[in-house]
Amino acid sequence: MTNSNLSPDKRESGWAARLVVTLSFLAAAISAQAQPPANSGPVALVVHDRQAGPTISRDIFGQFAEHLGTGIYGGVWVGEDSDIPNVRGMRTDVVSALRALRVPNVRWPGGCFADEYHWRDGIGPRAQRPVTLNPNWGGVTESNHFGTHEFFDFVEQIGSEAFVSVNVATGSPQEAASWLEYMTATQPTNLVRERTANGRERPYNIRFLGLGNETWGCGGAMTAAHYVEEMKSYARFARNFNPAQTGANAMRRIAVGPDGQSTAYTEAVMEAWKNKVWSWDIEGLSLHFYTVGGWPPRYNSFQFGEREYAALIADTLTLDRLIRTHAEIMDRHDPEKRVGLYVDEWGVWLAPLPDTNPGFLAQQNTMRDAVIAALNLNIFARHADRVRGANIAQMVNVLQAMILTDGPRMVLTPTYHVFHMYLPFQNATFVPLELDAGTYTQGDVTLPRLDAVAARDAEGALWLAVTNLDPERAAQVDIDVDGMDVASASGQVLTAPRVDAHNTFDAAETVRPREISVQARGGALRLDLPGKSVTVVRLNGTR
Ligand code: AHR
Q1: Residue 16 Cβ contacting ligand 1 at under 6 Å
Q2: Residue 394: is the preceding peptide bond cis (ω within 30°)?
Q3: Residue 485 in contact with residue 462, Cβ under 8 Å?
Q4: What is the pLDDT of residue 190?
Q5: How far apart are CA 63 and CA 103, in angstroms?
Q6: Per-residue CA distances from 229 to 235, 257, 268, 272 (Å)
Q7: H-state helical runs in 383-442
Q8: How far is the CA of 144 from the centre of ligand 1 (A)?
Q9: Which residues are paired to 253 by β-bridges?
């Protein structure tokens, strides 16, 4: 949705979310008053290495690339004739930075854009493709030069997989079915011949298929009951014919799910799934959650202070309760947890940068966003039993981006660095921990001071990620691992002098991770965590 045209739904759910935050702060503030001032000495953190939780799916590190602003055009696609170095039109600097992130999947073409996208506009010789409008995002023209073949080329260049959203709002089950046949079939049908003539003989691999986008809002403002009836047809007829996509490699269908606190979609989709007949199925339910601090987005993306920092961190932490709410409903209908929850849009949504088209959703990315990214990833990891995927909004130049570009120039954001630091958590096994988190108070906002997750990777190495939310006070954390004599920790820390510190094209390394290595002394391992920092370390020792 455009930030000037937000649905009442979204505004109401924003208010509801803020009420929950306010109430929880009141509760936290009252309990904080009742306690002596804490947080001065070292903090105890115990990792229960003997216990194993669920796998943290690498799909929670998914990305989202919508036809919006310069997210695709300029950010990813510059065209084969551009002076900017590119491979078949994809800029090489961006591709190489994304390859290093091992992006598991990319959601495309939207978002609200997908609700009006017709795939035939984006195939065939580029010079003959129609020029259409992008009414959702700035009312600009859409060249359709980045279409199906370009998307899959991009995904393959960065070593990722496709998450394709079909158009349920202004499309039809037939249009979606034809697109799927075009992309995935192998028999010599007319559509497969057309794909081959357009340059691709082998079928494409589609990891996820989104059955619509925000059909409660920009995708048609449908009631949950109406959507469920539509969704069944798409789940039935948008078939994947790729012979390689069977068993564990089968395409997962993701139904539209809740808008924030409203549980109507969760109840309706899960109820229908529980009572479904053989002819349709889904493997996932979508949830969209933005850190925004109230609609329309008004928080600055740079030049802000600690008050704005704390307010948006508080908003982020409401995601945990939100996931619990929807997971409880899913548990009732699906106790075996066969349907995953996919937070396929998340991130911080801020006021547009001055002198930009407000429909382009261009914003800076600061140390605050890095902390917010880490907190979101920690929440997903703690809910790994149900949360099987997530897609940050968005990949390049839009909202909480990994990468910003300006003509030939590119800069990596603090959020990019967090995703890079968290690589060891991809498909790792969740390991429970106990942490005396303490509190951090700013004005009337009280938050946990620390947040942490631990996981064991496929080689058995133990990893710990700790965020110090307090922007001013460093924390010392004494680490004890149940089941291991810890000898050392090594990894990276990301911090910055100010909460609004960010990287620019002229100063690209203001916020960047630095290496750390700590030895245990007398059998104890102490980590020093600077204020407003994200630290990821490998814990070394003998088990
Ligand atoms: O990410 C920007 C927009 O936010 C998406 O297009 C839409 O699905 C959501 O409202």
Answers
A1: no
A2: yes
A3: no
A4: 98
A5: 7
A6: 10, 14, 10, 9
A7: 414-421
A8: 19
A9: 209
Rounded-to-integer distance, Cα 378 and Cα 366, Å: 19
Whether ligand 1 lies within 6 angstroms of the CB of 169 is answered as no
Identify the DSSP state of 438: -
The per-residue DSSP string of 101-112 comes to TT---EEES-SG
Residue 524: predicted pLDDT: 85
Residue 6 beta carbon below 6 angstroms from any ligand 1 atom: no
> What DSSP character marks residue 132?
E
Confidence band for 89, pLDDT divided at 50, 70 and 90: very high
| Per annotation, catalytic residue among 116, 142, 161, 214 | 214
Does the beta carbon of 116 sit less than 6 angstroms from any atom of ligand 1? no
Pairing of β 140-142 and β 132-134: antiparallel
- Supply angle C-alpha 123, 127, 129, rounded to 5: 40
Strand 450-456 versus strand 429-431 pairing type? antiparallel
C-beta 122 within 6 A of ligand 1: no
Determine phi and psi for 450, rounding to 5 degrees. Answer: -130, 155
Mapped onto helix, strand or coil, the DSSP state of residue 498 is coil
What is the distance between the alpha carbons of residues 16 and 9, in angstroms, rounded to a whole number? 10
- In the residue annotation, 345 being an active-site residue is answered as yes
What residue owns the CA closest to ligand 1's atom 5? 111
User: Average pLDDT, stretch 93-104?
Assistant: 98
- Residue-wise pLDDT tens digits, 34-73: 333 445 789 999 999 999 899 999 999 999 999 999 999 9
DSSP letters, 290-339, are EE-SSSSP---SSS--HHHHHHHHHHHHHHHHHHHHHHHHHHHH-TT--S
Q: Is the CB of 213 under 6 A from ligand 1?
A: yes
Residue 387 CA, ligand 1 centroid: distance in Å: 20
Residue where the block lists tokens 């001032």: 37
Q: What share of the chain is helix, strand, coil (3-state, %, to 5)?
A: 30, 25, 45
**For residue 133, how many C-alpha atoms fall within 13 Å in the half-sphere facing its CB?**
4
Answer whether 90's CB lies under 8 Å from 77's CB. yes
Identity of residue 437: A
66 is catalytic: no
Say if residue 386's pLDDT is above 90.
Answer: yes
The alpha carbon of 135 and the centre of ligand 1 are apart by a number of angstroms equal to 13
My answer on whether omega of the bond before 497 falls inside 30° of 0, hence cis, is no
Alpha carbon nearest to ligand 1 atom 4, residue: 1
Per residue in 232-285, pLDDT tens? Answer: 999 999 999 999 999 999 999 999 999 888 999 999 999 999 999 999 999 999
pLDDT tens per residue, range 452-467:
999 999 999 999 999 9
- Atom 10 of ligand 1, nearest CA residue: 1
- Over the stretch 388-430, which tens digit does the pLDDT of each residue have? 999 999 999 999 999 999 999 999 999 999 999 999 999 999 9
